[in-house]
Amino acid sequence: MTSDASPGIDIEPWLRKVVEWGDNTSSLEIQQDVCLRLPELQEFLSQMYETLKHMEPTTAIERLPALGQFLGRLCWNPFVVSHKDTRQLLICCLCCLTSSQPQNTIERKANSWVKRLFCHLLSSSGKEDAHLLTQLECTAADYYDKLLTNIISSLIKRLRRSQQDKGTDPLLAEQVRAICIKCIPVLTLAEVAPLLEALLLYHGPEPYEVLDSHFLQAVNDAMQTKKIALSESAVLSLWLRHLPSLEKAVLDLLQRLIALQSKSFSEMEEIIKDSYLPQAACHPAIFGITDGIFRSAILERDGNLKMLTIVRLFTSCFLQEYYKDNAKAKLPLRAYFSHNTPLVLALLRRAEGLPSNICIQHLHTIVKMLRSVDSEERSHENVFQSWFLLIRLGGWVDIAAEQLLTSEPEISDDLLWLLAFYYNPCNESQSRGRTMVEAKAVYECLVSLRRSSTICAMSFHKLLEENKSNPWHPRTLQLIRHLCVTFIVFCPKWHSVAKDCVSYMTQTQEAASEVSDILARTLSRLDIPGMESQKIITIVRKLQQDF
After folding, report:
1. How many CB atoms lie within 10 A of CB 103?
2. What's this model's pTM, rounded to 2 decimal places?
3. Which of 364, 431, 451, 487 is deepest in the core (most CB within 10 A)?
C-alpha cells in the first residue's frame, strides 16, 4: 500500500515479484519474466530515484522499510544488473541512501551496506566473489573495500600516465568522458573523491574539453550542497573548465546572503569565504566573471543597499586572500581593477591610524578624481565604472560621513558630494543637486545639535518630520539616514537617547534594514586591534541588540 509519507512509491508489489524471481535465475521461465518486465522495472526505479533524491537517507529508510530488501535483491539478480541502464538506476537509488557525514547508527550501517553493493555491481558475479573470498580468507567488508580502492587507484594512475604521455595504454578522450559519466551516480562516496580530483585536474593533449558537462555540473552541485569536499586546485579547475558552474556558485552565494537575516558582518564574511569564491577570484578570469555578475545584480536591484554591502564584503574578502601571502608571485591589482588605476590606489589606502586632517585631505583627492569623471569625462560607462569602484572599495564613504559630523571647523561640500554620488550616481534630471541641498540642510541641523548643550530626542525627531510634509527622494533619504546614524554613534553626548532616536528612524522594514547595515559597517570598520573606539563599539553593539 502506498504511504502518504512517500507518495508514488509502492514497493510491495515489486518486492513480491523480486522475491518470486529469487537468486536462482537458471529457470528459463524466470529469465523470460525478468527480461519482459525490465522496461517497467526501469521506469519504477527512475520514479523511485526522483523521490529518494529529495529525502534524507534516514527518512527514506524509516518511511520505506522494505526499500533495502528490494534494492539488495535486485543487485544480486544477474539478469537485472546486466542491463546497463537498470544497473545505473540502481546505483543512483543506492547513493541516495548514503550520507557524507553519517550522524547515527542507521546512516553508518547504510553507508557500509551501499558500499558493499556498489563493489559487487562493479565486480563480475556473486559466485565468483564468494569463491575468491574463500581463497583469500578475508571478510566481505575487507574485500569490497580493497576492490573499490584498487579500481579507483587504477583509474587515477591511467589518468596521470595519459596526461604525462607515458605508458603504452593512454586513455582516449572518449574513455575519460566515460569515466566521468560513471562517476555521476557515486559522487558522494568518500572513496571516489580522489578520482574526482584526478579528473578535474586532468588535461590531455586534446584541444577541446574532454570532461563531460553533466559530470562537471553534478560535481559543482554536490560541492555547493556540502556533500563532497574538494581541494582548492580542483575547485579552481572546475570553475575554469565549466563557466555555468562558476555562475551558479556566484548566484547561489548571492541568494544565501540576501536571504540571511543576521546583522553580523562576520557571519556574512564566513559564508563568503566558505564558498571559496574569494580565493578562486585571485585568478583574473574568475574575478572578471564574478565582477560581471555583481554588476548585473546591482543594476537589476537598482542599487539596493544590501546588494552594495554584499559586493563590498566580497571585495574585502578577496583582498584579504590577495594580500595573504606576500611572498607568492601575484599579478598587480590593475589586472583585476583595470579602470582608473589612480582612483583604485586612492580607495585602497588604509585609513586606520591616520590623523583626521590627513583623512580629510585624502578624501578631497578622491572627490577630485570622481568629479573629473562626472564632468569632464562624463559618459554613462565611465561614471558607472567609477561608482562601481566606490562600491567595491567603499570604506572611505563611511569615513567621509564620520568626518562630516566630527571635524572642526566644518569642512567643505566635497564630502557631502561624495555621499551624494555614492547614493545617487546617475544624477537623472539633475536630482543629485536636490539631494545635495536637502542633505546639507539636515547636516547643518545635526551640526547645530552637536553644539547644543541640550540633549533631547524630540529635537532629533524634528529633523525627520520634514520628510512627511515634503518627501525626500529615496536616494536622498538613504544618505540622510547615513548622516543621522553617524551622528548618533559618533557624538557621545547623544548616546543617552540613541535608542529612542534609532527607534524613530526605523519605523519601516526598509529603514530598519538600512540603519542596521550602517551600524554593521561601522562595527566592522572600528572593531579591530589597536583602535581606541571602545565607547563607540559598545553603543553600536547595544543598538544592534535593540533591533
Report:
1. 11
2. 0.75
3. 487
